[in-house]
C-alpha cells in the first residue's frame, strides 16, 4: 500500500508555515507516497452546521493555510511524492481561477497532482465567498466540465448556467495528459452517482479509533459506484479509492496501522493517507508519527 500524510496546514502546525517545506522534504525522505491538503476558510463564531455531524467546529480550523500555496511549496521541495487535495471545495472558486491554480501545481510538480474535489458543508463559508450553498452541486458539475475544457482544448471556452469562460487562448496545460486524475468526495447518493459519472475515483474516510468496517466504508460504496459507472458506459475497473485516515486525538499508531492493513487486505485499497491534524502539535512530532506509522505498516 502507498501511504501518505497531510501537510502541516491546520491548527498548531499551521502557526509555523515556514515548516511546510521541511515537513514535505523529510516526509518524502521517510518514504511517504503522497502529501495532502484540505480546504477550510473560516471557523464561524456561531456555526449553523457543525463539523462531522457535531454542533461545533474543531478549534484547529481557526488557523488554516491556503491549500494551493501549501501544495506549491511541497511541489517545489520534493521530487517523487504525489500531491493531493482532500478536498478542495470547488464551488468556492470560479473555474478559470481553479484551473489556473491546479494546472500550475501539476506543471510545477512534473505531473504529480491528484485533484480531489468536494462541495464543503459550512453555510458561513459559502456566505463568505458569496456563492449560494444550495447551488453547490450544480456548480461542481459545471466546474468539472470547465476544467476538462481548460485542460484539453485551446482556445478554451465554457458557458454554463453559473460559470463562464469566454473563448481564450490557454497555452499552459497540465504535465499529466490528458489531465490530472480527478477524485470526488461525498457520501450522499447524489455525490456517489457523480463519482460514477464524472470522476477517476472516490475519497472514502476512516476515523480511528472508531471501529473500521471495510464493507460499509469502502467495499459497498465502491460496488455501487462501479455499477453506476457501467450503466453510464464507463470502464468501472479504472475507478479506484484513496482512503483518508482521519484519527481523533485518542487514536494510537496501532489503531491507524490496523485500519491501513484492513483497508488493503479486505477492501483492496492500495493508496491511503493519514491526517495528522489531531495528533501532532509541531512538525517534529508529525514527522515522528509518520515514521512510526510507516514502520508499523511495513511490520504488518
UniProtKB/TrEMBL annotation:
Residues 15-262 form the Luciferase-like domain. Pfam families: Bac_luciferase. Its EC number is 1.-.-.-. Keywords: Flavoprotein, FMN, Monooxygenase, Oxidoreductase. It is an enzyme of class 1 (oxidoreductase). InterPro entries: Lucif-like_OxRdtase_Rv2161c (IPR019921), Luciferase-like_dom (IPR011251), Luciferase-like_sf (IPR036661), SsuD_RutA_monooxygenase (IPR050172). The lineage of its organism: Bacteria, Bacillati, Actinomycetota, Actinomycetes, Kitasatosporales. GO terms for molecular function: oxidoreductase activity. NCBIfam families: F420_Rv2161c. This is TIGR03619 family F420-dependent LLM class oxidoreductase. It comes from Streptomyces milbemycinicus.
